[in-house]
Amino acid sequence: MQNKTILIVDDTVSNLDILIELLEEYDVIDTTKGSDALDIVRNEKIDLVLLDIMMPEMDGYEVCKRLKSDPITKDIPVIFITAKTDEESIEKAYNVGGADYVTKPFKPKELLSRVNKELRLQDLMNELRLSALTDSMTKLYNRRYFAEVSEHYINLAKRENRSIFVIMLDIDKFKNINDTYGHDIGDKVIILLADILRKNIRKSDVACRYGGEEFAILLPESSKEGAMKVAQTIRKNCEAVKISLNSDQFVHFSISLGVAEVDPSQNRAIEVALKHADEALYKAKESGRNKVEIFLAETKA
Q1: Which of the listed CATH numbers 3.20.20.70, 3.40.50.2300, 3.30.1340.10, 3.30.1330.60 matches domain 5-133?
Q2: pLDDT tens across 175-193, in order?
Q3: I need a labelling partner for 97 at 20 to 30 A (CA). Which of 68, 88, 159, 224 fits?
Q4: Spatial distance between the Cα atoms of 290 and 180, rounded to a whole number of angstroms
């Protein structure tokens, strides 16, 4: 558990100092504001949150509710730390999604025990969750999770008037690779492509194996130029890959990509956007492969 990161949220600095010292074996991030805590969990990998209830501006209940309403942060366990001991407060803490509840002044050994228990449980839950939401070969997210998280981001884009894009891509002449070099090499190409996707997208982006040799990427808070840049970077990285068969023989592969903007106001917005991206992908294939094309609304019949 040495590499676990714990976020402590408490508006009393002396409490933060005590907890930081107590949790010295972990990486600790601290803040005195609930709003700052929400920003931190979106930008850092947080494994556990220790959360005070009574804070100005935004109390711990509201912070926890917001964490649990976001599919990106909903699985981070929250342990409430508070001086409130009445049954109503404790019940509310669990109702908003708290995993545990420790009263102040807390006992160091008890708190450490609760923290360790939640982190061990989280490791187990993460293993189970990943097996359900990821593709076994590439370890990218699967189509099911892509659909779930896309809905969240599209709703957010609609509320906050943000732009959002998708990329569809697949491996050019993949059947020829399998037929010529065998399925082991074909699998290696798919795994290498997945690694390239992981290394060339932001933390907020979502890449999935959509099916077979086809992949999809969701790009929240992006732009046409940004989405095209990501697509071109991925394409160039794939083009540069050499898979060694022996000392003087290598396998190369390329991909074609289609980019489309999501219209959050549409019904079934992600399905429409993926269809548009797929049309752009088809255009890239038809015009010679190893290309990026973007769907333009004015090109619709």
Answers
A1: 3.40.50.2300
A2: 999 999 999 999 999 999 9
A3: 159
A4: 19
Task: Give residue 77's pLDDT band: very low, low, confident or very high (50, 70, 90).
Answer: very high
Residues with Cβ within 8 Å of residue 218, at least 6 apart in sequence? 146, 149, 150, 153, 164, 165, 166, 205, 206, 207, 270
Q: Quick one: tokens of 13?
A: 């600095």
**DSSP symbols for 46-99:** -SEEEEES--SSS-HHHHHHHHHHSTTTTTS-EEEEES--SHHHHHHHHHTT-S
Nearest to 172 by CA among 214, 124, 121: 214
The reported pLDDT for the residue numbered 171 is 97
Helices (H) and strands (E) in the chain, counts: 10, 12
Q: If pLDDT is split at 50, 70 and 90, which confidence band does 282 have?
A: very high
Structure tokens at 242: 């050499």
Give the pTM. 0.64
CB-side exposure of 257: number of CA atoms within 13 Å? 26
Q: For the chain, report the end-to-end CA distance as a whole number of angstroms.
A: 57
